[in-house]
Amino acid sequence: MERIKLKSVFLREEMDTLHIRHLYHQIDWSDRLVGILGARGTGKTTLLLQRMKLAFPSDDTALYISLDDIYFASNTLMEVAETFRSRGGKVLFIDEVHKYSGWAREIKNIYDTYNDISIVFTGSSVIDIYQQEADLSRRAIFYELAGLSFREYLRFADVYSGEVISLSDILSQHTQIAFKLSKHFKPIPYFEAYLDHGYYPFFKENIRTYFLRIEQVIRLIIETELRFVDGFDINNTNKVMQLLAILAENVPFKPNISKLSSKIGISRQTVTQYLHYLEKARLINMLNPAGASISILQKPEKVYLENPNLHRAISLSEANQGSRRESFLLNQLRNAKHEVSLPSAGDFLVDRKVTIEVGGKGKSRKQIAGVENAFIAADNLEIGIDEKIPLWLFGFLY
C-alpha cells in the first residue's frame, strides 16, 4: 500500500496542468461514481491526475491507482479501498479498470458499502458497460474522452485559445466567425498540421515519433484491449490488423463483406463483428442511412478511419486528401455528440435535418442541388460565404 501511495504522490506532483481538456469542465465531479471511457492515447490518465492535482494538491484524501499495476496481482481493489478509507481517504482515482478481472463487481461493492468514498475510474472505449455482471449503468455517470478537436489542438500548440462554437452558430454565422478567428491565427496551415499530427495529445512530446506512437497505440488496442470484448477470438488478432490495413487503403469504403471475408480468411459474420469492434475501439467510424437498425451484425454502408491522423499512420500509400477531409468532419461532428447518417444526396446528414457535402475550395453545389438546408464544407478556404463554410471551422464544435 505504501508503494502505490508514493507512486500516486509522485505522479500527481509531476503532472502538468497547463493544458486542460474541454471534458474536464463538463464532468460533474461531485457525483460519487464517475466513469471516463475513451480510446487509448486520448489522455484519460492525464485527466485523472490533473483532477487529483487541482482538487487535492497536497493532502492524502485522494489516491491514484492503476489496475494494471503488478500490486494487484496479489491484492484486491476492495482491500485497497478499505485500507485507504481507514486512513482518512475520500476519493479513489482508478485507472485502466478493464485490466482487472471483476472490476465492475468490486467497484459496485465499494460504492454500495461506503457512502463516504467517491470513485472516478477510466476504461477502454471497447468496454460494454451494460454487459458487466455488476450493474454500474444505474450508479455511474459516464463520459467519453475523444481525441483533440482542432480548437483544442490550437490551444495545446499555444496558438490560440478559443471557446466552443455550436453547430447552429457555424451554419448561420460562419462568415463573421471565421473573419474574427482569422485575425488571431492563419487557419489553413494550422489545419493541415492538425490533419497530419494533431488528434492525439502526445503530439506535444515529440512530433518526429508521433506516428510510431500511433502504430503502437493501434497494436495495443488490437492485441490487448479487444480481448476484453465478449466474443473476440484473440487468435484472429492478425486478421483484424489485416482488415484495418485494407480499410485504410480504401476509405471512405463501401464494404463488400463477401470479398473481405474471402481476402482475410474469416467468415462474413465475423468480418461484420470485427468492424463493430474496431468502431468501439475508435479506430473506424461506420455510416448508415438515418433510421437503419444498428447491431453487431449490421453491415455498414460506408466505413471511414476514425480520425485523419490514422491515414498516414496506417496507409501504405499517401493519404487521400478527400478521405482525410471526410474523416475529419465525421469525427468532429460525432465527438460533439451530433447524430450523423448517410443522406440520399451529399456526404453527411446531421441530426436528420442538415446535409453537408465535403470538398475543396472550388466545390460546387452539384451533388446537393435542390436539397434543402444543405451546405458545403470546403477545405483550403479561410473565410466562406452563404452556404459554403470553411472545413476547419467545424473543428471548434467541442
From TrEMBL:
<protein>
    <recommendedName>
        <fullName>AAA+ ATPase domain-containing protein</fullName>
    </recommendedName>
</protein>
<keyword id="KW-0238">DNA-binding</keyword>
<dbReference type="InterPro" id="IPR041682">
    <property type="entry name" value="AAA_14"/>
</dbReference>
<dbReference type="InterPro" id="IPR027417">
    <property type="entry name" value="P-loop_NTPase"/>
</dbReference>
<dbReference type="InterPro" id="IPR025420">
    <property type="entry name" value="DUF4143"/>
</dbReference>
<dbReference type="InterPro" id="IPR036390">
    <property type="entry name" value="WH_DNA-bd_sf"/>
</dbReference>
<dbReference type="Pfam" id="PF13173">
    <property type="entry name" value="AAA_14"/>
</dbReference>
<dbReference type="GO" id="GO:0003677">
    <property type="term" value="F:DNA binding"/>
</dbReference>
<dbReference type="Pfam" id="PF13635">
    <property type="entry name" value="DUF4143"/>
</dbReference>
<dbReference type="InterPro" id="IPR003593">
    <property type="entry name" value="AAA+_ATPase"/>
</dbReference>
<feature type="domain" description="AAA+ ATPase">
    <location>
        <begin position="30"/>
        <end position="147"/>
    </location>
</feature>
